[in-house]
Fold this sequence. Notes:
The structure holds 2 protein chains of 2 kinds.
Chain A: E1 8-12, H1 16-28, E2 32-36, H2 39-48, E3 53-57, H3 65-74, E4 81-85, H4 90-98, E5 103-106, H5 111-123, E6 132-135, E7 138-141, E8 146-149, E9 152-154, H6 158-169, H7 177-183, H8 195-210, E10 218-221, E11 225-228
Parallel strand pairs in A: 1-2, 1-3, 3-4, 4-5
Antiparallel strand pairs in A: 6-7, 7-8, 8-9, 10-11
Helix pairs in contact in A: 6-8
Chain B: H1 8-60, H2 65-71, E1 77-81, E2 84-88, H3 90-94, H4 98-101, E3 107-113, E4 119-129, E5 132-141, H5 143-191, H6 209-258, H7 263-295, E6 303-306, H8 307-324, E7 328-333, E8 338-341, H9 343-360, E9 366-373, E10 379-385, H10 392-395, H11 407-412, H12 419-429, E11 433-438, E12 444-450, H13 454-461
Parallel strand pairs in B: 7-9
Antiparallel strand pairs in B: 1-2, 1-5, 3-4, 4-5, 6-8, 9-10, 10-12, 11-12
Helix pairs in contact in B: 1-5, 6-7, 7-12, 8-9, 9-12
Amino acid sequence: MTMVNAMHILVIEDEKKVAEALRRGLEAESYRVTVAHTGEEGFFQLNSELFDFVLLDLMLPGRNGIEILGTLRKRGIETPVIILTARDGVEDLVLGLDSGADDYLVKPFAFPELLARIRLILRRGKKDPQLRLSLADLTLDMVTRKVTRGSEQIELTVKEFELLEYLLRNQGRIVSREMLSRDVWQVKDRSTPLDNVIDVHIARLRRKVGGPFDKKLVKTVRGLGFVLKEEG
Amino acid sequence: MRLKPRSVRIRLTLWYTAALAGLVLCFALGIYTFVRSSLLRQIDDQLERDLATVTRVVRDEPNEINELAQHGSVDFFQVSEGTQVLAETDSWSRFGLEKGVAGSGPGAARSWRAPNDRLYRLRVVAVNSPGHGYLVAVSEAEQTLRQSLASLALILLIGIPLSLALAVLGGYLLAGRALAPIGALAAKAAEITAERLSERLPVEDPLDEFGRLASVFNKTFARLEDSFDRLRRFTADASHELRTPLTAIRSVGEVGLQEKSDAAGYREVIASMLEEADRLNKLVDNLLVLSRADSGAQQMLPEPSDLSALAAEVTDWIQVLAEEKEQHLTVRVSQPVWADIDRTTLRQAVINLVDNAIKYTPDRGNIRVMVRYSPSGEAVIEVTDDGPGISPEHQGRIFDRFYRIDQGRSREMGGTGLGLAITRWAVEINQGRIELESEEGLGCTFRITLPASKARLRVKTSPDL
């Protein structure tokens, strides 16, 4: 992907370390990134340039995120916006979504999670009716609900199947435990202790998918989560 | 001027005095009226007797009437016919009593002030005998009666204010004595501040009013002291818990930076730091849950839910953990058990309990989740294990924040020390209660009891179904 075609993301975040980390992380994913450290600066950027996506911190000096978002939407600018907030009060989030945000992330968030949300929103509208998912010689058929590796069929439990489907759809990308908890187990509460459950399922899935073969496909990335990819 | 005195002592005295004054005044008035009327009745009785004597003479022996007037036993009387006076006693004319009869006909006894400024009681009666129409008047001096009444009034007028004055004084002193312990209590209570919450008010007699008041205060102080202690302990524990992963992040980072390493080595360092950051994150998330719980800001969406289904869902999720330890995790439900609950919070409570049971029960142990209605019709979820159990010394505090039976072990297993505190909150916010039954060495049972959903009970017992 060349820089010309790259998606252009505006990051409005006053905390310099966080902003810098976001910039580097997003650039590593081939996005083009502009950073604004204050609300005014961000607003100026939005008015002077076209962006594909905005990451908006809610608590900003000067102009707060909700105000910026409100003004933006009032002017009919429909650029997708993800709100970043340290407050996880339900009211704040509802207020944010009501003001026209597309999604929100509560700080501190895992970077893979942010990437997943961005992809999700950018892909929105485009149908993704992939009924056969595959990686290397691993295939998952959504219709017959059969999983094969090479010529051998792999028996999976329902949960393992859902887990593998999620990993396949996000193949090559790191998937955090939080994402799995929310998207596969449908538990939104971050204080629910599902991490051990997820680890066990991953371990079993790894045994079943990668067990009888030389190449392990399901990998653990310490401190971050899991990734499904070919050895490399 | 202040209408309502601020001092209870003065108010009490005033009330006391007012009540006593009212009582004494009524009493005095009653005595005066009673004495007066009974004295008057005595006079009137005498008048009637005199009248009877005179009348008898007038009727039976009219000629003897003058004899009666001269030497009779009746002091004051007059007999007349028309305008002619037939007979009268000396005293009658001497005191000018005829003026009292003049111009007035017969009637009931009445008091009359004679020209000599003395009061007389007068009674005039018409007496008819064949051929005659007499008017008989009798009288008695009221002087003695008036004097008695005057002395009585004097005694009362002097006595009442005097006794009231004594009552005020006595009341004031008594009220002062009665209220003195309150002042002492207030002074003592003022000394008990946040720093000296361990002190207590003296209780002389726990059964009297002041003793009860002091006991109530003492209980409040005890609760305050307890919550202050908890808060202090919680703050200390929380900073300790937060500092542990922070310390790890810092030392791992520092050492990692000092050591020369290759990319893989640095990766290892960063991953380790991220793991600690994750732990810190979880801790903060849990603290936030509890802080929302404390502020009552948790959004609740109670709806009739089947607890059996909830328990099945939770065990289904968590079954794999038991399998890893070759434990038997079973759900025992016989029927749907309905309760009005917020599923998210209660599910978390049940997950925590089952998760704990799996963690602390040794390999190949048994964990049983049972959902049923209690005999009294409440909804019950029980999580029972045959693990090591919890000794009585820990049972009381097991739901406290950061309370751990075995510090190192719990943390090693990824516990934040907040699980059971969150569980208890989650149960209580759903109007339920949680109990622990345990005997050391014989496992333990956590029991959640919730009010059963009324809506569903009605449907369940409806004859149509």
